[in-house]
Amino acid sequence: MSQPQAVQSPERPRTRRIGTAIFAVLAAAVIGVASFFSIQSASGGTDVRGNLTLIAPAAAGGGWDTFQRELQQAMRTNGLVNNVQVVNVPGAGGTIGVGVLSQQPEANNLMVGGSGQITAQIQFDTPSRIQDITPVAKVLEEYDIVAVPADSPFESMDDVIAAWTQDPRGVAWTGGGSFDQLVMTDIALDAGIPVADTTYIPSDGGGEAIQALLNGTADVTAGGFADIYPQVESGRLRVLGVVAEERLSGTPEIEAIPTLVEQGIDVTITNWRALFAPPSATDEEIDQLQELVAETVATPEWQATVERNYWREAPLQDEEFGQYIQDETDRIATLFEEMGQ
């Protein structure tokens, strides 16, 4: 695969920018009101240990929301913060939440984010970008797995690549979001298959992608482990590989899943989760937030959450994390260029 280069996104309609700005103003008001009442009820004022607002840049029930509510529970159970609340700020692939966080004057606002927001800001050329906020710590990674229906003729990734190479449009892929399409794109590039000639059927979440497989609409999926693997355990789907640098730990069945790299496919892109603070946060406040995050992820409650959701801890912070964000932005931009978007 060629060295990633940042690309210029095509100009987007002005109305989209106006709509995004209005949404950001409204969402900021929601955060402001929620923070006001939280501060009133907290004895610790606005310091991160006395009062903390966890921003989930998506609706309730999704991956970002789950992350923040599990973080909240671990903090509460272990008394790490006097008062901690979760506020949902959905919209524009998580970039509305970025815009809201960038306007907060206090450091005691912590948003979860990651590759999904980078994907959205490139795909939609959003005015709010992850580079506008302050990275605190990368916490974990979620991995995609490649799966097919249990009765599929594809027994391995070699089978998929062989059929796909022969007929790029004839092997239909699906996934639950833009990130899953990036995974498919990366696999196609590595296999030398023209991305413009492939067939990708977008689905609204992992459940819809699974149905597309089961009803024959799609042949292969690249989807989140937590969404797809239960269907493998039930016998409805067959897993062909995990998109990770090394095999995952867990049950013998999970540990037996080969990586794509093992199968000669150099694709390791991950759906990572990290925490971000407002740009107003000082170095001292960032240090305090990093200490709080470290204490939280070391709790038994959080460790159980990681295991339950098939997550993998992948800590990173400071200069290394900043460089990681830039590298991921460049890589995702290149994949979108290949997709013609």
TrEMBL record:
Presence of keyword Transmembrane = yes
Write down a Pfam family by its short name. TctC
Q: Which SUPFAM superfamilies match?
A: Periplasmic binding protein-like II
- Keyword Secreted present in the record's keywords: the answer is no
Which Gene3D superfamilies does UniProt cross-reference here? Bordetella uptake gene, domain 1, Periplasmic binding protein-like II
Query: Transmembrane region positions?
Result: 21-39
Recorded superkingdom: Bacteria
Q: Which UniProt keywords apply?
A: Membrane, Transmembrane, Transmembrane helix
Similarity comment text for this entry:
Belongs to the UPF0065 (bug) family.
Tell me the protein's name.
Tripartite tricarboxylate transporter substrate-binding protein
